[in-house]
Amino acid sequence: MKVKEYEYIRGNTAAQPRRSSETDRKRYEELQKAKRERKRRKREEERRKRRGARQIAAAIAILGFITIARDTKVYSMQNDLAKLNSEIKSVDDENEALRVELLKVASLDNIKTNAEEKLGMVVATKDEMLQMDLSGNYFEDLENDETNAKDNNKSGLFAKIMDALD
C-alpha cells in the first residue's frame, strides 16, 4: 500500500511515508555499488592475468637460460672430445711409426750387420763352436764352496779376535 505524504499518521502509530525519490536514490546507490564491484572484480582479474603472464615469462626466461647453459656445456664437451680424439689419433700414428722402427731394428739381418760392422764380430765356424748340456746343476760345488768360505772367514775372524784378547 502506498502511503501518501499527508497520510503519515494512523491511529497511535506514525507511518513513515515513502517518497519516490528515496527509492530511486537507493536503486541508484545499488547500481553504483554493483558497478564498483564489477570494476573491482575486473581489476582483480586483470591483475591475476598480468601476474600469470609474468610468471609464465619468468619460467620461459629461466628455462631458456638453463637450455643455453646446458648447450654451451655440451658444446665445450664436444670440443674437448674432438681434441682428445685428435690426440689419440696422433699418438696412434706415433705408436705405429715406433712399431715399424722396432721391426726394422729387431730384424735378424740388421742385428747381423750391426754385429759385424760396428762390433767387429765374425760368424763362428764349426771348429770354434762348443756345445754344452746345461740341464744339470754343474755349479753346485761352487755354491757350497762359497758358503763354506764365508763360514771359515767368520770363524777365522772370531778366532783372530779371541787370540787377540788372550
Strand content: under 5%
Overall geometry: elongated
Q: How would a crystallographer describe the biggest sheet? A: 2 strands, antiparallel
Any idea what the radius of gyration is?
Answer: 59 Å
Helix count, DSSP H or I runs of 4 or more residues:
3
Q: Which range best describes the helical content: under 10%, 10-25%, 25-40%, 40-55%, 55-70% or over 70%?
A: over 70%
Distance between the termini: 160 Å
Order of helices and strands: EEHHH
Mean pLDDT: 83
Name the assembly state.
Answer: single chain
Question: Going across the major beta sheet, what is the strand order?
Answer: 1-2
Which regions contain 5 or more consecutive residues with pLDDT less than 50? none
**Class inferred from helices and paired strands:** mainly alpha
Total beta strand runs: 2
Biased composition (Basic and acidic residues): 19-34
Biased composition (Basic residues): 35-50
GO biological process, one term: cell division
Transmembrane segments: 52-69
Description:
The protein has a domain at 22-122. It has three helices and two strands, in the order E-E-H-H-H. It has helices at residues 20-106, 108-117, 140-165, and strands at residues 9-10, 13-14. Strand 1 (9-10) and strand 2 form a beta hairpin. The radius of gyration is 59 Å and the shape is elongated.
